[in-house]
Structures are given as structure tokens and as C-alpha cells.
Design a protein that fits this description.
- The chain is an alpha+beta fold.
- It has a domain of 156 residues: Electron Transport, Fmn-binding Protein, Chain A (Pnp Oxidase, Chain A), CATH 2.30.110.
- It is 17% helix and 34% strand.
- It contains 6 helices and 14 strands.
């Protein structure tokens, strides 16, 4: 039996902090779809480097370009304001080994903070944009702002779409698949999954991928057969 959850079901859940269901739809926690975590690097008006630990994204494109689509970029953040002002940003993927470093950039995020320094990250010059990359990242996507859309039209968050103009990938991460798709690769955000039996939101969890097999292997020998 499936539980039907609509846009009017927020009253069945308890916020962990006031205004949580304004910043995030309650459906975020009801569905709790894992999403890749990364650091967005930008530059503040005073020249200080800025980092934002972010999720809520997808990546794709066609012959016309490859695009990073980031939902839930809050208007009140330095990141949003920097992207709109400078017209560019960089997405930096780091492994879960750097999780505590990423959290440090959230704690130390004032206009006067150097957030690379706060997270003990090293600046690396980008190839196509002025915004620096994170040297410790195993893959960085240099992006130019292509689109800025307030999906809910409430002035809270925007969907930011960046055109990827350059990708920098560590060589050892493009030799096979294991490093990118295991504990040393992409880390994922499981954002406070809701328990509708109690109405409580559980703690956020961090996850990594486990490769189960290639398409051909799975087609010819599905799990459980």
C-alpha cells in the first residue's frame, strides 16, 4: 500500500527549525531523494573567496552544451549574489573525507571570511573563468551563468543554470570507474528523511555509491536471479 503525499501534507510533519518548510518544500523531506554534494566557489565583492556546500542539482546537455542545474540557491546567500554579480561560478566535487572541511565553510561564512581558509582548502586557478577552483576536488566544473529562474516566484530561492565551459578531472579518477563511484568519489546528501508515522524529520545522512554492475551485466544477470 502506498502513502499519498500532497502539497497540503506539510501539517503532518514537524519542522526542525522555524521556517524550514519555507526554505525547503516539505516534499523534499517526504521524498528524500539522494543528491550529489559539492562545493560552489565564487568571489565576494571584497575579493574574498566564497564556498557554499550545496546539493539539489542535476547535470546534462546536448550538442549545444553541457549544463549544471542547481535548484534551491537561496537569494539571501553570498553565493547567489556573487553568481548574479559576476556571471560565473565553479562546482567542485570532493570525497566524503572532506565533509568536516565543507561544514567549516558553513560555520565561517561572513563577508570577511576567506572560506577556502576556513575549510582548509587550497585555491587553484581556473582555466576559463576568474573564479578559483578547489585544488582538493577530484573534479571541477567551471560555469558561466546561463539562466536564473525563481521557480516558485516567492523570492526565496532560484534555479541557477550554468553553462560548463571547462571540466578539470584528476587523472586517477578517469582511469576506470571505481574512484568516482565509491567512497573516494561523489558523496550524496540524504536530507532529513521524514518519518510520517511520527511526523519527525530524521538526521541528514551522507552516502556514497556502490557499483552493482554494468548495464550488460545487470541485463543478463539481474540481482536476485
Amino acid at each position: 500500500m502506498k502513502r499519498e503525499i500532497g502539497m497540503d501534507s506539510a501539517e503532518l510533519l514537524y519542522e526542525n527549525w522555524p521556517g524550514q518548510f519555507d526554505s525547503f518544500s516539505h516534499m523534499e523531506f517526504a521524498c528524500s531523494i539522494p543528491q550529489v554534494l559539492f562545493l560552489i566557489s565564487t568571489v565576494k565583492p571584497n575579493g574574498k573567496p566564497n564556498l557554499c556546500f550545496h546539493s539539489w542539482s542535476s547535470f546534462g546537455g546536448d550538442a549545444g552544451g553541457y549544463f549544471a542545474v542547481m535548484q534551491n540557491v537561496a537569494h539571501i546567500t553570498h553565493t547567489y549574489q556573487n553568481i548574479v554579480r559576476e556571471g560565473e561560478f565553479c562546482i567542485n566535487f570532493v570525497s566524503a573525507d572532506y565533509y568536516s572541511n565543507c561544514i567549516a565553510t558553513i560555520i565561517n561564512n561572513s563577508i570577511i571570511d576567506d572560506e577556502f581558509e576556513a575549510g582548509n582548502f587550497t585555491l587553484e586557478k581556473s582555466l576559463k573563468i576568474k573564479t578559483p577552483r578547489v585544488k582538493q576536488s577530484f573534479m571541477s566544473l567551471e560555469c558561466q551563468l546561463a539562466c536564473n529562474v525563481d521557480l516558485s516566484r516567492m523570492g526565496i530561492n532560484s534555479m541557477i543554470i550554468g553553462r560548463v565551459v571547462n571540466a578539470a578531472i584528476e587523472e586517477k579518477y578517469i582511469e576506470g570507474v571505481d574512484k568516482r563511484y565509491g567512497k573516494e568519489g561523489f558523496m550524496f546528501n540524504i536530507h532529513e528523511p521524514a518519518d510520517y508515522a511520527t511526523g519527525q524529520l530524521n538526521d541528514t545522512h551522507v552516502a556514497s555509491l556502490e557499483v552493482l554492475g554494468s548495464y550488460a551485466e545487470m541485463k543478463n544477470n539481474p540481482l536476485g536471479s
